[in-house]
Amino acid sequence: MNPLLAKEATRALLALEDGTTFEGLSVGATGETFGELVFNTSMSGYQEVITDPSYAGQIVAFTYPQIGNYGVCAADMQSDGAALAGVIVCDMCHTPNNWRSEGTLPDFLAQRGIVAIECVDTRALTLRVREAGTMRCAISTTDLDPASLVARVKAAPSIAETNWVAKVSTPEPYDVDAKVDLDRPRRRLRVTALDCGEKRGILRGLIGAGMDVHVVPWDTPAEKILATNPDGVFLSNGPGDPRELPEPAACAEQLLGRVPVFGICLGHQMICQAAGAAIEKLPYGHHGGNQPVMNLLSGMVEVTAQNHNYGLVFDSLGELDAELSGGTEVVDAWHAANTHDLRFWSERRIAPVISTEKFGRIRLTHVNLNDGTPEGIQFLDIPAFSVQYHPEASPGPHDAVYLFEAFRRLMEGVPDYLAIDVREGRRF
Ligand SMILES: NC(=O)CC[C@H](N)C(=O)O
After folding, report:
1. Could you tell me the residue range of the domain that residue 38 belongs to?
2. Carbamoyl-phosphate synthase small subunit N-terminal domain location, by residue (predicted)?
């Protein structure tokens, strides 16, 4: 038996869809919870992860072995509460020590009704998910019978069956004013943001780049958004299966070409679908603050924060345009090689382009170097671009924060708006 389980605490059981179970101790609310299991590799920033609305419907296992050691504080919230379904950790710290700490993570979880389990071998758990892929799971403090809990996990609904975006979006529009930098006075731009579960870090990124943001609910029609007369529209991150969200995708389709558009994560997936692209479910997604992304325009690598289970199938937009993609040799290499192999990207510098009927030419601008999946696109004939990862970090490195400045430049009509050196971007 795990010696840690000798501690005086409520027992909990974690059960996976594939029949694996882990015994542990309760470190949040008692009761039980069902959700989609994902693992997050961030070494710090657990509170930002736990309060990120994009995790609604998911149970997050932290791979970093000790969680909770610097406590929780109001300033780190990414939303009002915690929308995720549950938390799994190896070792939960009950006695945090940090000058910013205002409370402990177990109390925070218990107060918000989040069921959580500790003493789990999160390394074994993560290896399981990497082999078997994302799956449903449950944490229970009431049903400690492995066979029974596994059977109930198997009968639980999949994440795609619920509209999680509708649960986390703002019910009413609201405004956030631009942050004015007295050392760098410049025109304030007006952005309308479609809130599919927007993180506060993103709002901070937008207002920090001098934008007044008018936030509207996820199902606001495009015409209503355009009636707010914005300089640009932002499409936010959000939870759930993007293929089950026709409303925001239709909204994106109507906005593209009529106003400058920028999208992050779910917003990016909406823009891709609006352009006619297929979205696929990744084996176990990308969740963490240490994902390498190559900027195909500059050749620089950004270390980024990511949180997604789905991604763009770039080829599904159409045939590569040989002339714009660097010649037939490059296109042949693209078809012959495995673009999921890091070597493909390190051996050549290309940013392939596909011509689409609806919105003209679309260029692939960013790719994840862990698995070669496409993570950023730029429309060459209309003012729009989007990324699958998180320039706002929250938590994570700030390499990609230049993308908020790029959005500003797009709205200002700068032709090479995306051509910002990552190092220069750090100054914003
Ligand atoms: N952070 C996000 O916006 C996530 C988008 C989507 N729910 C996914 O998992 O891919």
Report:
1. 3-162
2. 10-140
* Residue 296 alpha carbon to ligand 1 centre in Å: 23
Handedness of CA 157, 162, 165, 167 (dihedral sign): negative
Give bridge partners of residue 367 from the DSSP assignment: 294, 374
- Ligand 1 pocket mutation pick from 37, 235, 307, 389 by most atoms within 8 angstroms of CB: 307
Which ligand 1 atom is the nearest neighbour of the CA of 241? 7
Complex ipTM value? 0.98
Q: Residue 147: inside a domain, yes or no?
A: yes
Tell me, yes or no, if 161 is annotated catalytic.
no
Residue 407 and residue 263 in one domain? yes
Question: Helix or strand or coil: residue 339?
Answer: coil
Counting the structural domains of the chain, the total is 2
In the reported structure, the alpha carbon of residue 41 is separated from the centroid of ligand 1 by a whole-number distance in angstroms of: 16
Task: Please indicate whether residue 251 is annotated as part of the active site.
Answer: no
**Where residue 79 sits, what CATH number does that domain have?**
3.50.30.20
Query: What is d(CA 26, CA 12) in angstroms, rounded to the nearest whole number?
Result: 5
Tell me, yes or no, whether 103 lies in a domain: yes
Do 227 and 158 have their domain in common?
no
Tell me the DSSP string of 5-63.
Answer: GGSSS-EEEEEETTS-EEEEEE-SBSSEEEEEEEEE--SS-HHHHHT-GGGBTEEEEE-
> Does 265 participate in catalysis according to the annotation?
yes
Separation of CA 315 and ligand 1 centre (Å): 20
Residues 260, 359 within the same domain: yes
Domain contains 369: yes
pLDDT one-digit tens code per residue, 1-53: 565 666 678 999 999 999 999 999 999 999 999 999 999 999 999 999 999 99
